Amino acid sequence: MEPKDFTGGKVSGRRRGGWISCFFIAGAMIGFQLSNGGWMSNLIVYLTEEFNVKSIDAAQLSSIISALAFLTPVIGAIIADSLFSCFSVIFACSLISLLGTVLLFLTATVNSLKPQSCEVGWMPCKPPSGIQFAVLYGGIVLGAVGFGGLNSVIATFGAAQLEEGHDRGSFFSWFFFILCSSSVISGTAIVYIEDNVGWGWGFGICVATHLIGLAIFLSRTQYYHQIRPQGSPFASLAHVIVASIRKWNVRISSKGEDYYHGGDDEALNLLPSTPSTEFRCLNRAALKTEGDTKPDGSIAKPWRLSTVQQVEDLKTLIRIFPLWTTGLFLCIPIAVQMGLTILQVLTMDRHLGPNFIIPAGSFTVLSYISITIFLPIVQKIVTPLWEKLSHRHPPSLQRVGVGHLLTAASMAVAALVESRRLSIAHSLHLEDKPNSIVPMSAWWLVPQVALVGFGQAFHYPGLVEFYFQEFPASLKSTATAMNSVTIAISYYLTSALLDVFKKSTPWLPDDINMGRLDIVYWIMAVTAVVNFGYYLTCSMLYKYRNLQRNDGHPEAE
Question: Considering only CA atoms, which of 113, 111, 118 is closest in space to residue 128?
Answer without folding.
Answer: 113
